[in-house]
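Here is one such tokenized protein:
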Amino acid sequence: MTDRSTKADREPVTAGQAPQETVRETFDSIVIAFILAFVFRAFIIEAFVIPTGSMAATLNGAHGNMICENCGWEFAYGLNDPNNSPRGIGAFDEQSVAICQNCRYANDTRETNDAKRNQKSGDRILVFKWPFDFGGELLGPKRWDVVVFKTPSDGTTNFIKRLAGLPNEVLQIIDGDVYVVPTEELSEECLTTLEQARHLKYLRRANGDANELAQLGQDVSESMGEALAELDKKMHIARKTDLAQKVLWKVAYNHDYPPKEIDNDQPQWVASGDESAWTVGNRTLSYNGIGQPDQRVELHARLNGFCAYNTLRRWINRSQDRHHPVSDLRVHFVLEFKEKSGVVRAGLSKRDDLFIGEIAPDGTAKILRTSVQNPAESTELCSTRIPNFDADRKIEFQFENVDYRVELTIDGKTILATNDNQYAPDLATLRQTQPPTTPPPYIEAANTSVELTHVVVDVDQFYISNNARLPLVTNWGTQNNPILLREDEFFMLGDNTAQSKDSRLWNYEDVGPHLIGRGESYQQGTVPRDQLIGRAFFVYWPSGLRTSLIPFLKDQGWIPNFGNMRWIR
């Protein structure tokens, strides 16, 4: 075959040409890498920093860490970040305190405030964006997701909250819980009333005609009673997912961290009776009562929605308000039977209902229901005999009443639980009456000898509804003021309910120009679908650890805190 290549084709590449090609290829690679990085950030995963404490203690904004002087419990407390704080004021002044989540001791903050360079940055998180872009039932937003979205006030600032309400449903917060009903299950009369209430809200924002406002307000007032009565019958509690519930428990008292000094504000286990067989030891509870009748120890503690992140007095008072007693509780401990007789029980109350979880050394387990007012008469709701139960070893016991479901868990496995036919809320009563103070949870034993260690009582998340002490409340979706969520409208709540400006609180000034232009198609208290960014899923950089080994870096958290990296639930 004849070689038809030209001389130029056969000339070797000179040494001077190779670097030019290499530089160009390197430049092309860098440009492509940048493009891919921007595409990745824009459509797949993006990193964000948590600036405030509205999602504490799930996610922390600018904060400090403290070990309680009284019990040794370590907790995060909020600090003012001048670059990010929405409060616009210093978090610490002479009236500020850091109250321990475990023992409620008021720690002195003067030696730990941000002026002392103790401020730690907020959690840095990763957010999945592409699932929301594709949408659909499988990938789209789901209730109790932790979601990043654009704030309604300007359309550029990023907010992060927990998604509580979905499109095409009616939502109402009652007694700290979220209740919902699909719009398709409601009558035309009820939907008309709720639509009029939504329209009235828009007219007020738009400074509508005074006469029209007055007439519409009267119409809504006259018909809302019947609408609420229908909702009482059709709404159901929006139970939290297992993963969300796990992070939303907050400690009421952990007996592994007993207070050194006990006064009326400090929690404590108290044995009933002058000759009790119970011993409330340091980090243990012991019962030695062979042949003795039922005797109990009660936890005397404040059972409310307090969050230790909050340091300003008004936030503390708001979460500890006497109108917000929390009665969704969990008690768990490690149980060791010293004698193979008798029973051990735990009791949790909600309003007038008292639920008892019971375990015997032969593996017999029960859930009983009685009345706080008349505890002598009880009804057995469910029972079982645990196969291969071994009372010779230590047993993990957990009993909880949350979202109108009572569960008894042994060694990490739920063995008994109530159903909606056995236990369900009476919404009419909940809406119209103030909740009573929660009776103390208790542990009871009879005719046995046991030792309990790692005894902990937790309280569930309590979403604050309308209250005269909350001047900023605009009451969207709150008690007696349900919100109708239309197509592509979502309702958001912060985990730190006392210090979260969320769907409940967005007022007329919080509607930015990008939403005002939509007119009545935008509803206050909601986040439109096109303002959602994505689902938060991982804390990749919690506030870093510090060391004094390098003096000029001693105030910087530059050491990775691997132990606190975590999935976001």
Notes: Residues 17-43 form the longest helix (27 residues).
